[in-house]
Each structure stands twice: as structure tokens, then as C-alpha cells.
Amino acid sequence: MTYAVSAALQAAIFQHLSADAALVALVGANIFDAPPAGTPPATYVSLGEEQVSDRSDKTGAGALHDLTVSVITEESGFQVAKTIAAAISDALAQPLPALTRGFLVSLNFLKAQARRDEAGALRRIDLKFRARVQDN
Predict the structure, then answer these.
(1) What keywords appear on the UniProt entry (predicted)?
(2) Is it the case that residue 1 has pLDDT exceeding 70?
(3) What angle do CA 34, 40, 41 make, to 5 degrees?
């Protein structure tokens, strides 16, 4: 098993989303690898939770990363959040930049959950993706 490629994978995803013209047109620079400190922007994208499992084989160390990219917005309704979520899905369907360690075998969409917060003030969509990586 290896967790060694995790930081490189996160950096590549963050870089890729931050450089995607369609996504940047919707949220500007409000793409974070952690929830923003202080008062957050009204609408932003955040890289979130990750679960990793071993996928090593006779060719080398590898892992499956189930990761979350979240859209959070104060906009009423889900239209804005869904438009941003679609841009994220489109961006991650394109090849990522090379990882600084290891390589990406595949990156696939798994599922999404759209919900309101308890107070009803925020809309949130959590997009779940699965990445298969190999260490080199």
C-alpha cells in the first residue's frame, strides 16, 4: 500500500481546477484546498475529504483515492451550485497535469449529493471522484 502519491494528486487536482477557464469564470479565484479561514466568499469550491485504500499489485505500489470536491454557495436554490458542479465535472473529465510523484491511472466521477445546511442559508454539493494512482 502507499499513501505517498496523495499530496501530488491533490496538488494536480487543485492546479487543474484553478486553471480551468469555465470554472474560474464562475467562481474566480475562490477555489481552495481547505475551507477558507474567516468569512468565506459567498460562493466557493473546496477540496475535501479523502479515503484511500490499497491497490498495490505485482507491478508496484498503488492506491484508490475516493475524494470530494465541494461547491458551497449562499445563492438561493441549487441552479448556481449545479452549474459550478457541472464545470468541475467537465474539468476533471480532462487530463490532469503530470503528478510530481507517481502517476494517475484513472479519475472517474462516482456520485454527488446536493443539500441545504441546517439553517437553510447555504447550498452545498459534494462531488465524489475515484482516482487510481501508481507510485513510481
Answers:
(1) Signal
(2) no
(3) 110
Helix (H, G, I), strand (E, B), or coil: what is residue 104? strand
- What is the pLDDT of the chain when averaged over all its residues? 94
Overall pTM surpassing 0.70 (yes/no)? yes
Domain boundaries, the chain: 6-134
Question: 3.30.2000.30, 3.30.310.50, 3.90.226.10, 3.60.10.10: which CATH number matches 6-134?
Answer: 3.30.2000.30
Q: How would you class 29 by CB atoms within 10 Å of its CB: exposed for 0-12, middle for 13-18, buried for 19 or more? A: exposed
Phi, psi dihedral angles at 40 (to 5 degrees)? -75, 160
Rounded to whole angstroms, the Cα distance separating 104 from 28 reads 27
Using alpha carbons, select from 25, 26, 31, 29 the residue that is nearest to residue 10: 31
CA distance 25 to 3: 33
What does the alpha-carbon distance between residue 83 and residue 87 come to, in Å, rounded to a whole number?
6
